[in-house]
Design brief:
CATH superfamily of chain B: Glutaconate Coenzyme A-transferase
Distance between the termini of chain B: 19 Å
Shape of chain A: globular
Helix content of chain B: 10-25%
CATH class of the largest domain in chain A: Alpha Beta
Mean pLDDT of chain B: 95
Number of domains of chain B: 1
Strand content of chain A: 15-25%
Number of domains of chain A: 2
Number of helices of chain B: 7
Number of strands of chain A: 14
Oligomer: heterotetramer
Largest sheet of chain B: 8 strands, mixed
CATH architecture of the largest domain in chain A: 3-Layer(aba) Sandwich
Number of strands of chain B: 14
Low-confidence stretches of chain B: none
CATH architecture of chain B: 3-Layer(aba) Sandwich
Chain lengths: 305, 253, 305, 253
């Protein structure tokens, strides 16, 4: 079971993420590829345009580490907790440095990615109008329908230079089974010029082929396949490990100041080689707590003729 | 009567606004509790849709995030992010959405983006997320918020989610399919919106609250409905059911 | 296991399909709800606007039976065989009567349904331009992108009065698991004003909830649920029975003339009460031949926290 | 040399046009055979996508329809109809598409809609299906067709799928992302298209065929490439591999 796409996260980032790139680390709350973000920080990529509907802790860390030139987003909060303090510090106080922002609604940003994935020239949508967002973002425009006098909002397609998509199981060529909250995983993979898939498990192609409707990403859009268990912590992977809600709550304290944030980074990002080392630093009690009981899907038969 | 906290009171009053078989776009925390409370009481057939794409979730714990795995295991259906917004919200499938924000003004415009100027923020807030999309597309918007002067402002610093803009006429011109703001529920009163002008209007006072108290905590002169009602006190059943939903008081503290 | 949505196909058609309605019997080759089409013919519905990307044999039969006023479609052939003769006879010779047509490409028609399901004001798309179709169909228009000088084609949303969607398994409220070729099943259900779901199996809600990513249609968009095994024959239901390719090939002969067609209809449509009777007329050898071997999907765990 | 039927010859010649790792939109019948033959020979990494939404199928029998269940069981991936056209075709992910039709003209325009006038058809054909979408979006269009005078016409009755319209200039104005017609493979010859004018041009003759025979079966005066080649005869390996793909000669009859 090998293919020339299989590599470590270190190799994948080194080969496919360049200074100045626009990157989309996918995952709506679920399967956020923290291991990729940490590797990008360790490899000191800079001037990145960070794309994500919900920047979440991962982009808060990348902003604190100085990787970002610009953030394109729709909700910059710590879900269920409050602010993303590094994001705020950058905007409010230019610490460690200022970043540009380009802001959408969730529908607008997920729509941009969908339009990018399907190469639509633009996407007409029923939102934005009446909000103060369009005046601040010249890429949100309006158009008159060719079928009525209706005027609706539009967004342009979004095509990241690189997308990183974490999945539950993939084969060595990148065919990926995804379940649970599927967010923008598929759209990110189809929209991006280069695609890094990381997965909890490498499985035989026959497992993928046993359930083709579960394959949201086909191999031929994938450039690198990284076998990276626990890639998403403190985010989660449905069926593999729970969301570390405690960590999300603690992040608020950790990031009170830039210094305290960088202290965390020194220990947990710069201070480790890779995700395996990060996990081995984790108390076993935490790992045990985050490991769920199984809850299997009822199989379906595809039939064989 | 059992003493209820301001949060408990707001959740109970909000839950009463939900009708059986309606489809609700649910956020975490207080709105989640309101929807679940209604489902246990008068609205067993309530359809709960989450922004994360989960439909008909059956959570075994209180979710911290709308993307919590407990909203997925045992849910009825799950779709992608774009699909959730396209099929459910823009599709006109949602009856009620809950919104919150740092500021709300008398036409129900909501600010969850920035205090101060957009380009030079005094306080930068998370932004719209799905809020503007919800405001534009659901039949009724319900806002649950503590009644504080810093939250109720004459004019929001930034319209993240349009309410009736500066009146019903402006709203109509936007051509949105949504019904706009429907109710604002606070610890002091319930407000709805004048059919003609789109202005916020006190329609009911929470138990023991006077209209003067409401006015004192609102920076503009509030409209009051011709027939001002008193919110019926929470029943023991409402209180007990609600507390069973959040036994560790994560949100009802 | 009951709900007020559960009913027979006879009741569902009687209650939800009216003369003059526009109807979409969904299914791209797969799970075409023949039982619904036959019931509509038996109930003598007329002036229907028949909507389907591929009219297939089912609409050929409904055209022959005189149910159709108009056909909206994108490929009116007998897949792998050739013509749909009843369709052709109506267009070329007005036998049994003329029908109007409104024609798209596959992308155009499936796009109209997608736009209807998601209430887009219109759908911009990269096709149609340069073909002779737009001059014949005034609903295919063009628009200039708000982001460039690009001019692209558009189609308007399609919202059928009624959709019939056959699925593998559903619960009594209509939550539906679908696998195999998923065609326009979901879009038809979300686009239509009334939705009839028919299914091979009624399962407990817990089966549905064991795999929510498989649920393409949620209960609250469904109006009627019909338990109708073998609903799709001579089309097929993945995992339940094979496509009756022999029948598709024979249809070419059966429909040589209008008379020969109606002879078939007398025996197999008008001459039976319902799908159960239709199936009991079928030689057992055919049923045995069409029944596939099982081929189960590898289950996934959703995890329980 | 083993005798090959005209169909076998066309499939073998078409298969040679496919390169490893290309993504092919496959129809049933002859194109399906060409793609599968290439995959067994020079292009093991060929990605096969079907109009029905199936990707990387592994059929255990010859499919009669592109929606046959044998294309689903054991496939790599499946998506919905709109998704197939949106993500794969419009998404620009397809390198080669095969098209056929009742008529093709010298600019590669294809008619699969109607013989006679659209509103008063002499023969009504199935229509575009996905053909126009394929013609508009794939990098190379390959047409496999018997070389008959009724199929090769100076001007098609109806452009179901645009080729180069009436020349490369008109084509450019359409602003489509596709590369347009690439090759027409018949039992007599292989034709490609003049880079400048977009006109069909004989580039190779099938074994034993003369240019006169080709011209006799074509109603307009055909352009011929400066360097007219001879198609290398099918090899034993090509023939044996092809025949193993359709042992009951459903399509190779």
């Amino acid at each position: 079971m090998m293919s020339d796409k299989m590599m470590t996260m270190k190799e994948a980032v080194s080969r496919y993420v360049k200074d100045g790139d626009s990157i989309y680390l996918a995952g709506f709350t679920h399967m956020i590829p923290f291991a990729a973000g940490h590797e990008i920080i360790r490899q000191k990529r800079k001037d990145l345009t960070l794309l994500r509907a919900t920047p979440d802790i991962i982009y808060d860390q990348m902003i604190a580490a100085g990787c970002a030139k610009k953030l394109v987003f729709s909700y910059a909060g710590n879900p269920g907790v409050g602010s993303l303090r590094c994001f705020r510090r950058s905007l409010e106080k230019s610490i460690p440095k200022p970043i540009e922002i380009e802001e959408y609604t969730h529908f607008g940003l997920s729509g941009r990615l969908f339009a990018g994935a399907t190469k639509m020239p633009f996407l007409p949508m029923r939102t934005n109008i009446g909000s103060d967002l369009p005046p601040e973002n010249p890429l949100i425009r309006t158009i008159k329908s060719p079928y009525s006098d209706e005027v609706v909002s539009t967004v342009p397609p979004l095509n990241p230079d690189v997308a990183v998509v974490h999945v539950q199981r993939a084969d060595v060529n990148g065919n990926s089974h995804i379940w649970g909250i599927i967010g923008e995983q598929k759209d990110a993979a189809f929209a991006a010029k280069k695609v890094i898939v990381s997965c909890e498990e490498i499985v035989d192609e026959s497992v993928i082929r046993s359930d083709p409707n579960r394959t949201l990403i086909p191999d031929f859009v994938v450039h690198a396949v990284v076998h990276e268990p626990w890639c998403a912590h403190p985010s989660y992977t449905q069926g593999y490990y729970d969301r570390d809600n405690e960590f999300y709550m603690q992040w608020d304290d950790v990031t009170k100041e830039h210094d305290t944030t960088m202290k965390y980074m020194d220990e947990w990002v710069y201070g480790v080689e890779d995700r395996a080392q990060y996990m081995s630093k984790m108390p076993s009690s935490k790992i045990l707590k985050l490991t769920p009981k199984t809850a299997y899907s009822t199989p379906v038969s595809y039939g064989s003729v | 009567m059992t003493d209820v906290s301001p949060s408990e009171l707001m959740v109970i009053v909000a839950a009463r606004e939900l009708k059986d078989k309606e489809t609700i776009l649910v956020g975490v925390g207080i709105p989640n509790l309101a929807a679940n409370l209604a489902k246990k009481l008068q609205a067993p057939g309530l359809n709960m849709v989450y922004e994360s794409g989960a439909v008909g979730s059956n959570p075994t714990r209180m979710p911290l995030s709308i993307g919590d795995p407990c909203l997925v295991t045992g849910a009825k259906s799950i779709c992608s992010m774009y699909e959730q917004f396209a099929y459910y919200l823009q599709g006109g499938r949602i009856d009620v959405g809950f919104l919150g924000g740092a500021q709300i003004d008398k036409y129900g415009n909501i600010n969850s983006t920035v205090i101060g100027a957009y380009k030079t923020p005094k306080v930068r807030l998370p932004g719209s997320g799905g809020a503007c999309d919800i405001a534009s597309n659901v039949k009724k918007i319900i806002v649950i918020t503590p009644h504080e002067k810093r939250r109720f402002v004459e004019k929001v610093d930034f319209k993240s989610s349009p309410g009736f803009v500066d009146g019903k006429e402006s709203w109509s011109k936007l051509g949105l399919q949504g019904g706009g703001p429907y109710a604002v529920i606070t610890n002091l009163c319930t407000m709805k919106f004048d059919q003609q002008t789109g202005e916020m209007m006190v329609v009911a006072l929470q138990p023991g609250v006077t209209i003067e108290q409401v006015q004192e905590n609102t920076p503009w002169t509030l409209k009051v409905a011709d027939k001002l009602e008193s919110t019926p006190a929470p029943t023991e059943k409402e209180i007990a059911t609600l507390r069973s939903l959040d036994p560790t008081k994560i949100y009802l503290g």
